[in-house]
Amino acid sequence: MVRLRGGAAAAALVLFVVGAGVGGCKKDTTGSAGPQGTAAGGGAALTAVDSLTVKGRAPKTGYSRARFGTAWADTDSNKCDTRDDILKRDLKNVKFTGGTCKVVSGALDPDPYSGKEVTYKRGRSLVDIDHLVALSDAWQKGAKYWDAGKRIALANDPLNLLSVDASTNRSKGDGDTATWLPPNKGYRCTYVAAQVAVKKKYGLWVTGGEKAAMKKVLSECPGQKLPSGGNPTQAPKRFTAN
């Protein structure tokens, strides 16, 4: 995985639009890294919302994290687990132990969700790796019916992963756009565009309320590009899930 940091990673992901409105989508000045991908050819995120299927939320019955495989599986076969891949991509001043995979320290400067600087130290971290589309939300909107390979791919796809402040992330739970947005208003357009991209890529549906919330945010930044890229939507067959 190519390491992208700071403003360079954000520029590769999306084109930001100046100006804030009701949705709080002003120019993102955080400079924080985001899901790895490219906006080239992705089109407008606002337009992409209309391509998503609208259905009601299915029951959560049967959901468990284990249905998406072992946490942080090395599905891209680069000999680093997914968590370390994302930390390397998103943190500044990264330091390693025992090679160039295991991240021992670094900093989110700033954290995309809160806008503050957050220090990462292995073993006592204030940093989470967030699934932008929460796995429980995905389960209730289509993933329940997938085979294990596709669920494992979603759980480890860099397009769906972001290093964030742990305390802010805990308030999200398994919320979708209709129920939770980052407190940092300048990051909301980027955040919602990434959720749209993940749901479009994997064929996940949205609820009516979720679609309306996505359009409300993105209507304040109509030039926001849809990120693309990430890993294939099927994990290698050697990976299994319960």
Number of strands: 5
Mean of all residue-level pLDDT scores: 87
- Gross geometry: globular
β-strand percent reads 5-15%
Structure notes:
28% of the residues lie in helices and 10% in strands. A hairpin with a 6-residue loop joins strand 1 (92-96) and strand 2. The protein contains eight helices and five strands. The two termini are 28 Å apart. It is of the alpha+beta class. It is globular, with a radius of gyration of 17 Å. The chain has a three-stranded antiparallel β-sheet with strand order 1-2-3. Strands 4-5 form a two-stranded antiparallel sheet. It has helices at residues 6-13, 45-49, 82-90, 135-140, 148-155, 166-170, 188-202, 208-218, and strands at residues 92-96, 103-108, 118-121, 127-131, 161-165.
